[in-house]
Write a structure and sequence with these properties.
This protein has about 180 residues and is α/β, with parallel strands linked by helices. It is built from 8 helices and 5 strands, in the order H-H-E-H-H-E-H-E-H-E-H-E-H.
């Protein structure tokens, strides 16, 4: 996992890895709470460690369940350089990928993450795209980097001010040249 690494902990055994499962009833109840949502993000740090443990079958089952309920699954992960190529290799049935990448950093190293994003078979939406505010002085440059050098499809961002939300949204629409409904 990203947070909570214990260097003194023993690695999982093969039988422990094999015993990891998705409680489909609990997962289904959580999906029922989403009501009118069209897209459902699956994975997160769970995707990172399940892919690392070679248990991406659990993520694939989550995507299958989401689709069976009439919703569209989207994979979110942190380890773009390792998860995205494997998700592509297994033809994971999701609409898109969310991955943290920006001009300053990505998990592991920026070059391998850029390559994974650029070569992904599905659209990649960047999150943490403006480095949690660290790139606030150069948002257009950061946005251009994501589009031109990484090939991202779009950007997820957060802000606490209406004016910033408007200006950032306008910049993203201008940069990516798509209608907001796409």
């Amino acid at each position: 996992m990203v947070f909570g690494y214990d260097p003194d902990a023993a690695p999982f055994s093969d039988s422990e890895i094999a015993s990891i499962y998705l409680d489909e009833d609990v997962f289904g109840k959580r999906l029922d709470e989403l009501n009118e949502c069209t897209y459902v993000l699956i994975g997160g740090t769970d995707a990172d460690w399940l892919f690392t443990l070679r248990r991406a079958d659990i993520i694939a089952r989550m995507a299958e369940i989401v689709r069976s309920r009439g919703k569209k699954p989207v994979l979110i992960c942190h380890y773009a350089s390792t998860v995205l190529p494997e998700a592509d290799r297994m033809n994971l049935d999701v609409e898109a990928y969310f991955a943290p990448i920006n001009k300053s950093w990505a998990w592991f190293d920026l070059e391998s993450a850029k390559s994974a994003v650029r070569h992904a078979k599905k659209p990649v939406i960047a999150f943490m795209a403006f480095a949690c505010g660290a790139l606030a002085g150069g948002l257009q440059e950061a946005c251009d980097f994501l589009k031109q050098e990484c090939g991202v499809y779009g950007v997820l961002f957060g802000t606490t001010k209406v004016k910033n939300a408007y200006n950032t949204s306008k910049m993203l629409l201008d940069t990516f040249g798509r209608n907001i409904s796409e």
